[in-house]
Amino acid sequence: MLIGGLSAGALTTSCGPEAARVSADHVYTNNYYIPGVGYYHAPFRTFFSLPYNHFDPQNQRYFFGGQWATAPHQSITNISPPTSTVAQQAEAQRTDIPRGGFGSSSRTHSVWS
User: Fold this and answer.
1) Are 59 and 69 in contact (CB under 8 A)?
2) Residues 6 or more apart from 46 whose CB is under 8 A from it?
3) pLDDT averaged over consecutive 10-residue blocks of the chain (113 residues)?
4) Is the dihedral of CA 23, 29, 35, 39 positive or negative?
């Protein structure tokens, strides 16, 4: 409990104009959400579009680690670092950070100035 609280606090203190980068050097708690990427499933060390142990009342199943089951997943792992591949993919998919691009219509240049 204490470790999760400290880690979650460390993650949230970096919020500001630009969110912290997703990295294999950071630990994330279960269901940590990143816009455009999804929810982190700590026991599986990757992100999914649905929260960990999401229950679908229509099909009476729980979602975790990319699969559906009749019972929720039980794990003592509630905090972990993503793999380096997962961290790179997550960082590339984020929609909560501005990305630079080529060209801009907000600036003009004149050869006559």
Assistant:
1) no
2) 40, 65, 66, 82, 83, 86
3) 44 50 94 94 97 98 98 97 95 81 47 45
4) positive
Rounded to the nearest 5°, which phi and psi values hold at 80? Answer: -165, 165
Burial class (CB in 10 A: 0-12, 13-18, 19+), 94: middle
- Per the CB < 8 A criterion, the answer to whether 40 and 30 are in contact is yes
- Burial bucket for residue 42 (CB in 10 Å: 0-12, 13-18, 19+): buried
Name all contacts of 41-49 with Cβ < 8 Å and 24+ positions apart: 41/65, 42/75, 42/77, 42/78, 42/79, 42/80, 43/73, 43/75, 43/77, 43/80, 45/80, 45/81, 45/82, 45/83, 45/86, 46/82, 46/83, 46/86, 47/82, 47/86, 47/90
> What's the CA gap between 106 and 89, in Å, rounded?
31
What do you get for the CA distance between the two ends of the chain, in Å?
63
DSSP tag of 101: -
